[in-house]
Amino acid sequence: MNTKIRKELGIKLKEAREKQKLTQADVAENTDMTVNYYAMVERGETNLTHDKISKLFKFLKLKASELPL
Q1: Whole-angstrom Cα distance, residue 42 to residue 15?
Q2: Which pTM does this prediction carry?
Q3: In a 10 Å sphere around its CB, with 0-12 CB exposed, 13-18 middle and 19+ buried, how is residue 65 labelled?
Q4: Model confidence over 4-62: pLDDT tens digits?
Q5: Which residues are CB-neighbours of 12 under 8 A, at least 6 positions away?
Q6: Is 18 exposed, middle or buried (CB count within 10 Å of its CB: 0-12, 13-18, 19+)?
Q7: How many CB atoms are located within 10 Å of the residue 55 CB?
Q8: What distances in angstroms separate CA 64 from CA 5, 6, 53, 54, 68, one per listed residue?
Q9: Which of 45, 55, 59, 64 has its CA 20 to 30 A from that of 34?
Q10: CA–CA distance, 52 with 59 (Å, rounded to integer)
Q11: Could you tell me the sign of the dihedral formed by the alpha carbons of 60, 15, 29, 67, in that order?
Q12: What does each C-alpha distance from 15 to 11, 18, 61 come to in angstroms?
């Protein structure tokens, strides 16, 4: 996953999280991640596996069509 896509994905996840009034800890706890790792995801600093993306989108009620490509 290139840097631009990682950053766009992080922005999308952060917006969805904030819209639902969730903390990074809420998301991390419910998607089997540490808070530090999830914060890196929102900043676009790490590559995600399909499994992690799937868990995040399911928990945040996002659709696959909302993935930045």
Answers
A1: 10
A2: 0.90
A3: exposed
A4: 999 999 999 999 999 999 999 999 999 999 999 999 999 999 999 999 999 999 999 99
A5: 62, 66, 67, 68
A6: exposed
A7: 17
A8: 14, 15, 9, 9, 9
A9: 64
A10: 11
A11: positive
A12: 6, 5, 12
Q: Is 8 exposed, middle or buried (0-12, 13-18, 19+ CB in 10 A)?
A: middle
Q: Using an 8 Å Cβ cutoff, are 15 and 27 in contact?
A: no
Sign of CA pseudo-dihedral 22, 16, 43, 38: positive
Structure token digits, residue 20: 């639902």
- Tokens representing 24? 């990074």
